[in-house]
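To illustrate the input format used throughout this study, we show a single complete record. The first block contains the structure-token representation of the backbone; no residue identities are included at this stage. The design step must infer an amino acid for every position from geometry alone.
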């Protein structure tokens, strides 16, 4: 299959224009930029001879009749997103579906999942499509400003169609940037993914005593930020005994109430997220999180509340699909590819519950992602596209 690299790069640059901010994008799920991007993608799918179909979550499919291989990723972004995270996989899928139809190649459908970046939860669009999360539960999820997913998706109600039956697809392959340093530092061009780590994500709230920052003696304070600080210090210490160099954990979002410089914060709500390839270790870490939070609360006279836990289990890539990618990588970049795990989450994790999945990576310059500076050499983008096209032809 011969892909059209110029057409692919032009579409990728055009998608970047939706929500463009500096070198990155601001295109969170259901934002005007996200919805405009999805409508543009739908027209490009139609131009390619595919039938565009939105489902109730705003997942956008470009369908061919009959059984087909599904390629794609997501086109929503983090609040400060890179231009390639997700977008690359969607546009690569579109180019391969187009080229395949033009050349009488294999049947390929395309998807752009919604809210992979978790404005509302962890990979919610593909989680609902794959049955991991019910639409009713998803509708109750709120973003950090309190907007409910059920309200946000009303902006796409006019195009929301029926559930797309997963049984029409023979498998799913997602092309994605690595979002880490391994390929770039190794001078490699292609990564063939072996497995995707699991994740746990929850909100924790410490309650203390709001008070005057000038008149309240330190010994009498119940400062909710101090509870977070103590929790974090003890957690780092205790995690050291159970983690590996690949285990990661992050407190990425903290809301202090009332968040004023002359007021001792009475409440602190923060996101607690951890990831690892090993389920028992994820479970062990959850116990340490809960026990440590309770101990800090009891010792300091704080209340502690745990939000609902969102979690996805680790998943291994399908051997046949992965094998096709490895052969294609060997042909295209004989000494410039490797197999590797994914420390980032992807829609492939959810889709793997329904069908065989595989992933192919291209390098992220300096390993940067989830940042406006995220970028990849164009030659590497095209190399990844060619490897995916070659693997699809061989399936
Ligand atoms: O967080 C992740 O791993 C994904 O990029 N949303
Ligand atoms: Mn992504
Ligand atoms: Mn991402
Ligand atoms: Mn005052």
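Output of the design step:
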């Amino acid at each position: 299959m011969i892909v059209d690299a110029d057409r692919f790069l032009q579409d990728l640059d055009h998608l970047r224009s939706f929500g463009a901010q500096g070198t990155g994008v601001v295109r969170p799920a259901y934002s005007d930029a996200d919805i405009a991007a999805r409508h543009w993608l739908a027209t490009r799918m139609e131009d390619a001879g595919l039938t565009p179909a939105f489902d109730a979550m705003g997942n956008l499919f470009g369908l061919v009749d009959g059984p087909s291989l599904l390629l794609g990723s997501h086109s929503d972004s983090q609040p400060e997103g890179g231009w390639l995270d997700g977008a690359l996989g969607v546009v690569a899928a579109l180019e391969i579906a187009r080229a395949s139809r033009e050349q009488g190649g294999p049947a390929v459908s395309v998807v752009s999942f919604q809210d992979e970046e978790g404005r509302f939860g962890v990979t919610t669009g593909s989680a609902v499509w794959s049955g991991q999360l019910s639409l009713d539960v998803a509708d109750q999820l709120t973003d950090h400003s309190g907007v409910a997913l059920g309200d946000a998706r009303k902006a796409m109600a006019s195009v929301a169609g029926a559930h797309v039956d997963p049984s029409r697809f023979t498998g799913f392959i997602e092309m994605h940037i690595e979002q880490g340093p391994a390929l770039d530092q190794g001078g490699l061009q292609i990564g063939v993914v072996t497995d995707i780590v699991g994740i746990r994500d929850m909100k924790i709230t410490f309650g203390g005593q709001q008070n005057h920052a000038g008149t309240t003696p330190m010994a009498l304070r119940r400062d909710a930020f101090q509870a977070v600080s103590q929790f974090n210090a003890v957690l780092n210490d205790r995690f050291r005994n159970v983690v590996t160099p690949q285990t990661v954990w992050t407190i990425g979002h903290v809301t202090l109430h009332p968040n004023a410089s002359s007021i001792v914060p009475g409440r602190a709500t923060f996101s607690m997220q951890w990831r690892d390839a090993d389920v028992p270790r994820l479970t062990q870490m959850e116990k340490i999180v809960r026990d440590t939070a309770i101990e800090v609360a009891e010792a300091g006279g704080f209340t502690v509340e745990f939000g609902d836990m969102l979690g996805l289990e680790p998943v291994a890539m399908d051997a046949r699909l992965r094998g096709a990618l490895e052969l294609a990588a060997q042909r295209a970049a004989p000494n410039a590819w490797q197999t590797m795990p994914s420390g980032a989450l992807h829609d492939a994790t959810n889709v793997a519950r329904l069908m065989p999945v595989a992933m192919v990576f291209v390098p992220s310059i300096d390993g940067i992602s989830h940042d406006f500076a995220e970028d990849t050499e164009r030659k590497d983008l095209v190399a990844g596209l060619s490897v995916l096209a070659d693997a699809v032809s061989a399936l």
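Structural context for interpreting the output: Residues 173 and 285 are 31 Å apart (CA to CA). The first helix runs from residue 5 to 16.
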